[in-house]
Amino acid sequence: PLVGTKEMFKKAYEGGYAIGAFNVNNMEIVQGITDAAAEMRAPVILQCSAGARKYANHQYLVHLVKAALEVHPELPVALHLDHGADFETCKSCIDGGFTSVMIDGSHHSFEDNIAVTKKVVEYAHAHGVVVEGELGQLAGVEDDVNVSAEDAKYTHPEEVEEFVSRTGVDSLAIAIGTSHGAFKFTPAQCTLNEDGVLVPPELRFDILDEITKKLPNFPIVLHGASSVVPEYVKIINANGGKLDDAIGIPEDQLRKAARSAVCKINVDSDLRLALTAGIRQHFMEHPEHFDPRQYLTPARANIKAIVEHKIKNVLGCNNAY
Ligand code: G3H
Ligand code: 13P
Ligand code: NA
Ligand code: ZN
User: Fold this and answer.
1) What is the pLDDT of residues 40-49, one digit of tens each?
2) Which residue of 33, 103, 187, 244 has the fewest CB atoms within a 10 Å radius of its CB?
3) Does ligand 2 have an atom closer than 6 angstroms to the CB of 272?
4) Which residues are paired to 21 by β-bridges?
5) Beta 19-23 vs 262-267: how paired, if at all?
């Protein structure tokens, strides 16, 4: 059924696991994710960005999700707006059938973030929809790597209680060292381990601990949490692609996050890499093919495989309904 995230997060918090929030942009992505989730009995969040709504059109996204629910009637699915920029975008998703929205006011001042988030919460809750807010700014690989500048962008634990109580948000996205995209760290920021693998700096679990102390039993959200699966990067580069220095969050850190107060882990880049790896590999092996069903079949299978892997080895949300 189409559901909100209240019960999902409560069970995840208590069970020491996290729900996967996967970005969807087309039919093959929706199919790959929901086929995997249903097979593993894992509740799932399908999230749409403003870019997804621009690309696919709101109605197509809603109806693709409805179709998935007809195919998998028992699967708990939340339909979520990712990074809502303003009240109007959130309202349009609430009115248009979403069960959850994010209002991303993290780039505003603390007071302006509270004001816009509170306005969205009032409207959303009146319509039975849950809201994710954000405090702190995700690191960008372009940003200054100077420590004090970085520190300033992490979520300030002393702000979270006031933000949550004044806005009434249902979950909170925080910044503890993750970032969006496939290039989360420069090689210079990483250290080489004994196997010759580049290991990025640890996420700031100390900040997460502080936040959890201030907000006991409150669901925390981790954005920018793709591990940038090295196998897919390799396949892409071996088949005509060029993704130099793509580095993500190591899986052991994501597993640690999933066991904590983190109840929602956002993944988009890993889906993009899986899909692209499938298509590139197919075209290199079958240069004579031009039927989209031929190259989108392995691409969709890769989406399903990566989501299964996340559910089982990172999120721990299998057999959760
Ligand atoms: O947080 C960003 C997500 O990866 C969505 O990306 O805005 O390109 O659709 P997008
Ligand atoms: P990744 O780019 O790490 O997949 O993060 C996606 C995300 O946070 C969507 O909101
Ligand atoms: Na958790
Ligand atoms: Zn995000």
Assistant:
1) 999 999 999 9
2) 244
3) no
4) 45, 266
5) parallel
Strand-pairing partners, residue 175, are: none
Residue 258's H or E segment, with its range, is: helix 251-259
* Token pair of 60 as six digits: 């197509």
Band the pLDDT of 139: cuts 50, 70, 90: confident
Q: pLDDT tens digits for 232-267?
A: 999 999 999 999 999 999 999 999 999 999 999 999
Q: How far is the CA of 67 from the centre of ligand 4 (A)?
A: 25
What is the C-alpha to C-alpha distance for residues 321 and 313, in angstroms, rounded to an integer?
18
Site to probe by mutation for ligand 1, drawn from 106, 268, 276 as the one with most ligand atoms within 8 Å of Cβ, is 268
> Who contacts 312 (Cβ-Cβ below 8 Å, separation ≥6)?
40, 318
Which residues lie across from 45 on neighbouring strands? 21, 78
What domains, with CATH codes, occur in the chain? 6-315 (3.20.20.70)
Q: Which of 23, 25, 132, 253 to mutate to test the pocket of ligand 2 (most atoms within 8 A of CB)?
A: 23
Among 296, 246, 305, 226, residue whose Cα is nearest residue 21: 226
C-alpha to C-alpha distance for 262 and 116, rounded to whole angstroms: 24
Please list the active-site residues: 82
**Rg (Cα) of the chain, in Å, rounded?**
19
**Ligand 3 (ion): which residues have CB within 5 A?**
18, 262-263
Query: For residue 140, what pLDDT is reported?
Result: 66
**Ligand 2 atom, smallest distance to 222 CA:** 8
- Complex ipTM more than 0.90, yes or no: yes
Q: Could you tell me the distance, in angstroms and rounded to a whole number, from the CA of residue 236 to the centre of ligand 3?
A: 32
H or E segment and range at residue 191: strand 191-192
Q: How high is the pLDDT of residue 146? A: 54
Distance between CA 256 and CA 162 in Å, rounded? Answer: 27
pLDDT tens per residue, range 142-178: 555 555 666 669 999 999 999 999 999 999 999 999 9
Instruction: List residues bridging with 100 in a β-sheet.
Output: 80, 130
